[in-house]
Design brief:
about 130 residues; about 25% strand; alpha+beta; 3 helices
């Protein structure tokens, strides 16, 4: 909060591991839901890891659980924080928000979106 004046509140273990509330330009409020995965296996994170369901049950993957929190009035962002790196084709997810390569039309981001849409066609967030 000292380094980013747009960060208004930090809530731990409420709706997610951490929820960050931001006030952006033009009085736009953004809530960022953060999943912390410190006990991850000793391997690179992949889309398969984010989409893996527990006992094949619906709404149990990290991806589905995060998007199920899309119930508030603010704009939302979702983040997973881990000690482990990601696979090379998902390296774009480690870039800061707003940096080159993170735009929806960027090839790597579009491929990621297409893969998630294919795996979970009914999971959406504005």
């Amino acid at each position: 909060m000292l380094a980013d004046s747009s960060l208004l509140t930090v809530r731990c273990e409420t709706h997610d591991d951490v929820v960050l509330d931001f006030e952006m330009p033009d009085d736009i409020r953004v809530a960022e839901y953060v999943q912390v995965k410190a006990g991850a296996p000793d391997k690179l994170w992949s889309i398969a890891d984010l989409c893996k369901r527990e006992n094949r049950a619906a709404n149990t993957s990290i991806f589905e659980k995060s998007f199920s929190r899309d119930t508030c009035a603010e704009a939302l962002r979702f983040r997973v924080v881990t000690l482990r790196p990601v696979t090379s084709e998902r390296q774009v997810l480690t870039y800061p928000i707003g940096s080159p390569g993170r735009a929806p039309h960027d090839e790597a981001m579009a491929a990621l979106q297409n893969e998630l849409d294919r795996r979970f066609p009914d999971v959406h967030s504005a």
